[in-house]
Amino acid sequence: MFGFYRFASVSPVLKVADTAYNTEEIIRSAKIAASNGAAFVVFPELCITGYTCSDLFHQELLLQNNTRALVRIADALKDSDAVIAVGLPLRIFGRLYNCAAFVQHGRVVAITPKIHLPNQREFYEKRHFSSGRDLLRGACGASAGSAASIVKCAIEGAGEVPVTNFITVRGRAFDYSNCASCSDGSEVRIGVELCEDLWTPAPPSGELALAGANVIVNLSASDALVGKRDYRRNLVMNQSARCIAAYVYASAGVHESTTDMVFSGHLMIAENGSMLAESRPFSRETEIVYADVDVERLNMQRLSEGSFQDFDSRSIIARAATLDCLRGCDTLQYRYVSPTPFVPGNTETRDTSCTEIFNIQCAGLAKRLEATRSKRAVIGLSGGLDSTLALLVVAETFKLLNRPACEILALTMPGFGTTNRTRNNAVELAKLLGVELRTVDIQKACLQHFTDIGHDPQKLDVTYENVQARERTQILMDIANSEGGIVIGTGDLSEIALGWSTYNADHMSMYAVNCDIPKTLVRHIVSWYADRAVQNLNQTGAESIPDQKATRLASSDEAVLAAVLRDILDTPVSPELLPADSSGQIAQKTESILGAYELHDFFLYHFAKYGAAPEKLSYLAKYAFKGKHTDEEIDKALAVFISRFFTQQFKRSCIPDGPKVGTISLSPRADWRMPSDASFGDWLKEI
Description:
Blueprint: E1 4-11, H1 19-35, E2 40-42, H2 60-76, E3 83-92, E4 95-104, E5 107-113, H3 133-137, E6 151-155, E7 159-163, E8 166-169, E9 189-194, H4 196-199, H5 204-210, E10 215-220, H6 228-242, E11 246-251, E12 267-271, E13 274-278, E14 287-294, H7 295-303, H8 314-318, E15 321-323, H9 350-372, E16 376-380, H10 385-400, E17 408-412, H11 420-433, E18 436-439, H12 443-453, H13 462-483, E19 485-489, H14 493-498, E20 511-512, H15 519-540, H16 555-570, H17 590-594, H18 597-610, H19 614-624, H20 631-647, H21 649-652, H22 681-685
Helix pairs in contact: 1-2, 9-10, 10-11, 10-15, 11-16, 12-13, 15-16, 18-19, 18-20, 19-20
């Protein structure tokens, strides 16, 4: 469903050289994995015999029993749709190869020999095996000049089996002879490497990924050494990111021979740089880890990566083996879907992430101030989240440039909907940061404008709202001109996506520092800044550090600043363009109109980054927000997101400059290009 496939990585209990025992344990654990919905099950390198057989690999009885075991495994799993990958030694054209064998529906469907054989004191595989490089190139048994021809090897009881490290899977809703030509975004293409292949300067998985492989499986036997587990984890995660692929890794466990080394049974499933599942080390029982891999998401992301379009994959596709369709996941059990994908999820790296984002914003603004030789930075300060973050960025930038905070000019411009809470927070924030604050009441000017254009001020429509927004922007622009400054934009990525701004009003500025930061991330950064203020207070106590007096607040002000920021965080998001309620509280609440910003940010992330269709957006949101938002709330917000994202493109086509912070940006100059009059009918039909 929606391109999700469940993968399992297994490290079974085994007995070295006891193929009968190992075979039954492989069958048992493969059936468990398949019964849990796994479409693909990966076992370690040489798991049928054990990796540590050493010179026993040259024993005829072991090799014969090993081949019979492979046929037994295939027959025992003939009723399963799952693909099982097992490791074993195989004789092909008179040479012995360290191989991965793939079985499905009772057949051995493909064989992959290991290319890179380690030549180390503890891993001397060249003593026993040959490299499979020539087999995979088609040199053995192929006619001259036919490097793309596929080689087949004869296995007793299994017939002629293709030798390849590239496997395609027939689509679920169609029957193509070669999945490379199909159009389903959820097509699965498997690239195969074995252990040492990953550790080389140019792993085969790189070329396989360029040829279209979106899942890499690695049958491995990597021993346990101090620090090696972390290094191995980084290898797998980095290679999955480099290949924009899933990487399924299975390594031998503690029941291998411990004559000279120990194995820990390291199992990992990564997806595009993120670790989805990982085993505990040194388990003495058969260990299985599962992950639900989003193949459709990987395929869609690759469409925007130019390097994947430039590689000639015909030679690899020509020697691919084709499997029957895999069973997709009906439900997600082994995948975490973050409800806040823009927000750094690891609390341990929160300070690092927020500091880096903040530094990008400040560096962008510093360059613009220097380039324009601006005497001042002018900003509208509402007491809301966005203008708060923007002012914090401006204040930090002026410190960076060794310029006094008094050169920052903040304007609070109360209108018909301004509440005491937001106005007081704006005033207090400006005071704490040491910037100049001016108050310009816009009500009189707006009433005059209503008269000029013949609008009834009792009619609280879009004209009533936009007159206020444009009056504020006019004041900011004109004062910036008179002061020799530039207007700093405060609008965020969520507002840009939804077009939640007044055209040529808050939609416009001379440099927009928040343009690439969605509302959920704005909230996260402001919260981080408040916590940092408290941390500074705890570190310095009641005394300020003498050599930092010019660049930081007194400790007593840190506590007040943190309190103001937290009250701003607790204030409902609102443009405050409609009159307050009878108790003087905010009446116009944005999220009551549009739906929760966390939903819109979730939709934006998966829509813009991975091209997810509305049906999948709804499915993912209902999974991520289960128990927090009802299905009705999610679908209603999704309809709003789709309609507004399409219809408000004209505003994005002319937004001001601003720094790119993350991988998703809606700048029309570099990141998001879209016709302003595109139809969204097909998208709405899916909801």
